[in-house]
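Supplementary Note 3. Input sequence used for the single-chain structure prediction.
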Amino acid sequence: MGTNDIKSLIEAALFASGRSLTLEEIANLCKSGNIGFIRRTIEELIREYSERRSGLEICESANGYSMRIKREFEQDVIQLIPETEIEPAVLKTLALIAYEEPIKQSKVVEERGNRAYRYIKKLREQELINAEKCGRTRLLRTTPKFREYFQIVNLKEAVKGDKI
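The predicted structure, written as discrete structure tokens, is reproduced below.
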């Protein structure tokens, strides 16, 4: 597979995935063990996207690389974006966790009802929150994936500014 083919494959993978892909995932997809080559190819794609007039950009985060709409175009196309795959009750539970974090699971259940156990399980499966043992309950916190998904750089500032 040539360099342009690999670049096109990486571009297609980032577009189709809808999530961040790690360098290792991209290398495996490209059937390449040369991580340095894959990293340089991605950096080249990032440069190309920043130089051309495109509504998309490729970004690097703690979780890997992703493709997204440039911020300056988000408001113009927001109505075209499909509704979130997170159902409203689960989203409300996530909002409570994000706002109060760290928060005990028992408090979430107290405020959201027994269905919160199911919602918490879904959020953990989606890796939007993590839970650690804390006595007879668990302590819930959001993850870096949560911040990436909702494009939040600083959670405390987002809460102050009502951006979540």
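The chain has nine helices and five strands. The radius of gyration is 19 Å.
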